[in-house]
Amino acid sequence: MKKIVLALLSLTLVFVLGACGQKNSAVSKEKLVLGTSADYPPYEFHKSINGKDTIIGFDISIAEEVAKDMGKTLEIKDMKFDGLLAALQAGTVDMVLAGFSPTEERKQNVDFSNIYYTASQVVVVRTEDKDKYNSLADLKGKKIGVQKGSIQERLAGEQIENADLKPLGKISDITLQLTSKKVDAIILELPLAKFYTERQKEMSLANVELKVEEAGSAIAIKKGNQTFVDQVNKTLDRLIKEGKIDQFVTEANKQAEDN
Predict the structure, then answer these.
(1) In this structure, are 135 and 182 located in the same domain?
(2) From CA 104, how far away is CA 95, in angstroms rounded?
(3) Any residues with CB less than 8 A from the CB of 173 and at least 6 apart, and which?
(4) pLDDT for position 254
(5) How many separate domains does the chain show?
(6) In the prediction, which pLDDT does 238 show?
(7) pLDDT given at position 57
(8) CATH number assigned to the domain comprising residue 240
(9) DSSP assignment, residue 36?
């Protein structure tokens, strides 16, 4: 009887230790599930390839490299930007790439990789109004379009006096708000702003830039999985060293232009 009890206790200990070890290891399944919001070219966006709707962009290229280095197949889940962190915390996705800035507030809830790309935060206005806005002070009390839950929403609230923020989930809806004169300006990252202003002549970059202390994009990972963070950083270090990320950005910009 004692032998049976000891055997059961040993088996229980193995399961407990295994569970503890798994908490701090990388995801232990064949698929690596990416959470993203695919309306943010050139980071991530939809494109018809060979008649099939496909999510591409330089964030996606980076995610594919992470999955490849881990010997896993990448699965992409497209969702609203403001729901990404909740999905990560719930375990619905394994990591998030969506032009995500590692703010101190976000770090309280999730872990982040090293920064893999840095871009400025700029103001986009209607071309007819371009000369009206030359400083953040010129935007005082104006209606400002931002993506809900984004760093742009926080920065606009902090740096534009009495800003009347109009947060929406999709970038395409935000730009439509500008062209339809429902907002006076919108805040975007520079690569995205260039994408829209080069395609839509009714929008232009204003000579205004927001101050950013927590600049750059990083990969968000569920808290408590340092081994996974280390694996992701190893891939990012390789891509940066090989010049791959700049290559991915260039390729994604070209694909977005042809979209």
Answers:
(1) yes
(2) 18
(3) none
(4) 78
(5) 2
(6) 97
(7) 94
(8) 3.40.190.10
(9) E
Report residues of the chain scoring pLDDT below 50: 1-26
Q: Which residues pair with 52 in a beta bridge?
A: 49
DSSP code string of 106-145: HHTTEEE----B---EEEEEEGGGGGG-SSGGGGTT-EEE
- Across the chain, what does the average pLDDT equal? 87
For residue 117, CA distances in Å to 100, 103, 124, 231, 256 come to 10, 15, 21, 18, 18
Q: What angle do CA 11, 90, 222 make, to 5 degrees?
A: 80
Within-domain flag for 10: no
What amino acid occupies position 112? F
Torsion (CA) 147, 59, 194, 142 in degrees, nearest 10: 10
Q: For 139-198, what is each residue's pLDDT tens digit? A: 999 999 999 888 899 899 999 999 999 999 888 899 999 999 999 999 998 888 888 898
